[in-house]
């Protein structure tokens, strides 16, 4: 998913400058997008997070743990930048999700007739 950011929550309320509200709304929007593709946030394998204030790192980590659970945390990189595209944006999340992949769920991930490398 390309960079997800927002200045309003799911009810349309203004959340400019509100790091926690923007982060929670971004995850909700990402989940909606993934559900339309037949997946969920559980399918996210990695994300890049852009913060305008490094002091928000701990808050982001706390919310990420709430959203993904202790064991389901995707790989993550955080980058602190001066500004985002619009005034009032304080966080943006770019993510990669794998939807519908059966590898690791008991099914073979190798092409028919192939053997695992030794």
Structure description:
The chain has helices at residues 19-36, 57-68, and strands at 44-51, 75-80, 91-97. The protein is an alpha+beta fold and 118 residues long. Helix 2 (57-68) links the parallel strand 1 (44-51) and strand 2. Helix 1 packs parallel to helix 2 (57-68). The chain is elongated, with a radius of gyration of 17 Å. The mean pLDDT is 90.
Radius of gyration: 17 Å
Strand order of the largest sheet: 2-1-3
Structural shape: elongated
| Number of continuous helical runs | 2
Sheet bearing the most strands, described? 3 strands, mixed
Question: Would you count the extended β strands for me?
Answer: 3
Element order, helices and strands?
Answer: HEHEE
Strand residue content: 15-25%
Q: From the helix content, strand content and strand pairing, which structural class follows? A: alpha+beta
Low-confidence stretches: none
Approximate helicity band: 25-40%
What's a concise summary of this model?
The chain has 118 residues and is of the alpha+beta class. It has helices at residues 19-36, 57-68; strands spanning 44-51, 75-80, 91-97. Strand 1, helix 2 (57-68) and strand 2 (75-80) form a beta-alpha-beta unit.
């Amino acid at each position: 998913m390309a960079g997800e950011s927002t200045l309003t929550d799911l009810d349309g309320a203004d959340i400019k400058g509100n790091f926690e509200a923007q982060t929670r709304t971004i995850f909700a929007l990402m989940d909606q997008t993934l559900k339309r593709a037949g997946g969920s946030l559980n399918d996210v394998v990695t994300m890049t997070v852009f913060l305008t204030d490094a002091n928000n790192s701990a808050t982001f980590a706390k919310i990420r743990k709430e959203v993904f659970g202790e064991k389901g945390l995707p790989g993550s990189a955080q980058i602190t930048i001066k500004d985002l595209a619009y005034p009032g944006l304080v966080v943006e999340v770019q993510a990669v999700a794998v939807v519908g992949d059966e590898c690791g769920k008991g099914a073979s991930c190798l092409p028919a007739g192939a053997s695992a490398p030794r």
